[in-house]
Amino acid sequence: SARTAGNGVASLFNATGVDSVAINSAGLLKINSFPNPTTTQFGLMVEGGTNEMVYVTVMSIDGRVLYQTQGNTNNKYVFGNNFGTGIYVVKVMQGNTTRILKVLKEK
Fold it and tell me: DSSP E strands: which ranges in 8-106?
């Protein structure tokens, strides 16, 4: 079973190793961007998670929000056609779960 560390963070380790519940959770939210890097636009696949709404935010490396949308999981989101060359941060939130991914647009 998970133990709570002194700082309040649940430890994923027990006497037999990593808890299988933490790894094999059916509700795991996954994100994947393709192609990455790209010269045109990105496709973002959001899979798994719960039935809650997902919120997608894409920011420039300096924190400016360039794209925002909301929708369901198991969906593809397309963005970036109007982005300049550079590195962008994709943040997907669903409930208390946040996933972050860096994407690269090339010339």
Answer: 10-11, 13-14, 17-18, 29-34, 42-48, 54-60, 65-71, 75-79, 86-94, 97-105
